[in-house]
Amino acid sequence: MKRLLVVGIGSPNPGDELGWQALLALRDSGLDVPGFSIEWREIEHPAVDLMPAMQGVDALVLLDAMPPDPALAEVQPLSLEQLALQADRSSSHGVSVADTLRLAERLQLLPGRLLILGLQGAGGHSATIACLVSELLAD
């Protein structure tokens, strides 16, 4: 069976807990992906904890709050380059998630399937996230 890691990036700081909230809501929704075992992780310090967490996984879904932007959807799929631009504008994690993923890419540690979702708004994103995860993992 393949391994899917779903990571909520966040902190207890107001406005930065959205990744954690989305992770818990998605887990509680009963997400089931045929052929994958799902692991759930809340990560506050991605520079330290993200690369060890993703070792040996086949697919990675990252959920992280992004600065409010009315031009973007409440659940916004992001490329690594788009994530880097978001991180340049605002990161509460010191070394950004994008920097950590770039390093993992250079070290050939990124899983074959990666979905980065920037989140904004009040929450209630589980159905949209589940749909995007299913699209990512469809054969």
Number of helices: 5
Write the CATH homologous superfamily: HybD-like
- Unreliable runs, pLDDT <50, ≥5 residues? none
Secondary-structure class: alpha/beta
Shape: globular
**SS strand fraction:** 15-25%
CATH architecture: 3-Layer(aba) Sandwich
Measured on Cα atoms, how large is the radius of gyration?
A: 14 Å
Mean pLDDT: 89
Helix content: 25-40%
The SSE string, one letter per element, is EHEHEEHHEH
Mind telling me the CATH class? Alpha Beta
Overall tally of domains = 1
Describe this structure in words.
This protein has a single domain, classed as Rossmann fold. With 139 residues, it is of the alpha/beta class. The protein has helices at 18-28, 46-54, 80-89, 97-106, 126-137, and strands at 2-9, 36-43, 59-65, 75-78, 113-119. The two termini are 14 Å apart. The chain is globular. It contains 5 helices and 5 strands, in the order E-H-E-H-E-E-H-H-E-H. A 5-stranded mixed sheet has the order 2-1-3-5-4, sandwiched between helices. The relative contact order is 0.24. The mean pLDDT is 89. Helix 2 crosses helix 4 (97-106).
What's the arrangement of secondary structure elements?
Elements: E1 2-9, H1 18-28, E2 36-43, H2 46-54, E3 59-65, E4 75-78, H3 80-89, H4 97-106, E5 113-119, H5 126-137
Parallel strand pairs: 1-2, 1-3, 3-5
Antiparallel strand pairs: 4-5
